Amino acid sequence: MRRQRIVLLSNARIVLPERISESANLLIEDGRIARILDSSSDKTAEADKVIDLDGLTLFPGFIDVHIHGAVGVDAMEAGADDLDRVAKFLASEGVTAWLPTLVPATSEEYERAIKAISALMSDNWERGRPARFDAEKDPRRENEALKLSKELRAGRPRSQLLGVHYEGPFVNSEQCGALHREHFRTFKDSTDVDALPTINHESAIHMMTLAPEIDGGIELIKELKKRNWIVSIGHTRATTEVLDQALAAGAHHMTHFMNAMPPLHHRAPGPVGWGLLQDGVTCDMIADGVHIDPAILKLIIRHKSPERISLISDAIAAAGLGDGDYEIWGEKISVNNGRTQNARGSIAGSVITTLDAVRLMLSLGVGESDVARMASLNPARLLGIDHYCGSIEEGKRADLVAVDEARNVRHTIVGGKIAYSEE
Questions:
Q1: Cα–Cα distance between 11 and 362 in angstroms, integer?
Q2: 8 Å CB contact between 415 and 150
Q3: Which domains are assigned to the chain?
Q4: How many of the other CB atoms lie within 10 Å of CB of 344?
Q5: How far is it, in rounded angstroms, from Cα 114 to Cα 161?
Q6: Between the CA of residue 77 and those of 106, 167, 179, what are the distances in Å?
Q7: Within a 10 A sphere around the Cβ of 276, how many other Cβ atoms?
Q8: Given phi > 0 = left and psi -120 to 50 = alpha, else beta, which region is 260?
């Protein structure tokens, strides 16, 4: 029988789901969190490798469910090697899993993008077969893989590519934001979903942002749920009545809350008022201080609570490159002082990473455990993978990020392996 590899992370502040452990050790066995121990415990003799974190703060690895690209790579045009470059960059920013996000486009462009995503997922799957939970310890997980799709590459692992997020094309043309209206669609029957290419991989996650008020919108939600897609409401002007129908059909999440939606009005609550009032609805938000004012971020947190909010980047290819003019989605997008703008004057995504969103939330006084929930556990729950990742708990996969007091990433660990270390 193959001997399990044991790694000890010593002398860490650990952000646990409900508290902070100010001085602790964490044992990793075969890619999973085996034990969390008081730092006074002497377990170094049991470890094959010891990494002294010297007081660094250990967060669960961040999960970004809405990202279009980074470091000059756009998911709509990328090849598998390009996507791998994004995954390497994200690991350096503490992001251990992500969903490349596609904007409305032609069928040919969708096919090309999905082909690249599929190729990278298949390549990583062949290089690193996933470990499985011990069925005797938890029979419910007998057939659930850990999905280590970014593990065991030649060299360090990368941030895991989990599947795909279609932002549209079934959205409202009156709330297009930076999306191109000419590619928007309505729903007539199941063949309209058949026309969207999917990832032929057993672990792939498929997510779609849609507007329920479009022609056939409620039936579209039902069709996607039959196919086990995650459905999110966004780029919408739906009334509360239609939103109630969408919720009943299976749409329980809202995309970049308050953005690409009509503003809250005292006689027309719309998506914003409805979303704030629905305890059964979660949302994600772009915490860059540009898409939403910091005071409104605090307002959303107060009403929705950290249990119902996920942080996303909505980053575009310019992320990680600094200010300048970039050709993205067939148009010029300018970045000035961290704010994006297209030729129509609309904000066109962001240039942050989840790490930047985490820093902003902490600066607003949100507690570390709550921020970890928003950056890791809640996205994992949205994707249905919180049973094996998203928080620092015994038995879960060791996806971790160690940051210093300035919230700079010093180490990122994916599946128990070092994916990034500051030189």
A1: 22
A2: yes
A3: 61-390 (3.20.20.140)
A4: 10
A5: 12
A6: 12, 15, 16
A7: 18
A8: left
Over the chain (423 residues), what is each successive 10-residue block's mean pLDDT? 77 96 95 88 70 96 98 96 97 98 96 96 56 37 37 67 97 87 93 96 94 98 98 98 98 98 94 97 97 97 97 97 93 93 89 98 98 98 97 97 97 96 83
Q: What's the CA gap between 363 and 407, in Å, rounded?
A: 11
pLDDT of residue 423: 67
CA distance 216 to 230: 18
- Give yes or no for a contact between 281 and 348, defined as CB atoms under 8 angstroms apart: no
pLDDT number for residue 69:
97
Q: What is d(CA 196, CA 14) in angstroms, rounded to the nearest whole number? A: 42
Tokens of 102: 């596609």
Strands 417-421 and 409-414: antiparallel
Closest CA to 29 of 397, 393, 388, 376: 397
Q: Tell me the CA distances in angstroms from 272 to 34, 261, 281, one per residue in order.
A: 42, 7, 12
Listing DSSP states for 333-347 in one string gives EEEETTEEE-TTS--
Closest CA to 199 of 139, 97, 260, 119: 119
Q: Do residues 323 and 337 lie in contact, with contact meaning Cβ atoms separated by under 8 Å?
A: yes
Residue 265 DSSP label: B
Q: Is 325 left (phi over 0), alpha (psi -120 to 50) or beta?
A: beta
- Neighbour count for residue 203 (Cβ, 10 Å): 19
The alpha helices in 236-364, defined as continuous H runs, are 240-249, 270-277, 294-304, 354-363
C-alpha to C-alpha distance for 6 and 43, rounded to whole angstroms: 11
- Cβ contacts of 23 within 8 Å, gap of 6 or more: 11, 12, 13, 38, 39, 55
Q: Check residue 148 and give its pLDDT.
A: 37
Q: Report the predicted TM-score, pTM, of the whole model to 2 decimal places.
A: 0.92
User: Number of C-alpha atoms within 13 angstroms, CB side, residue 123?
Assistant: 17
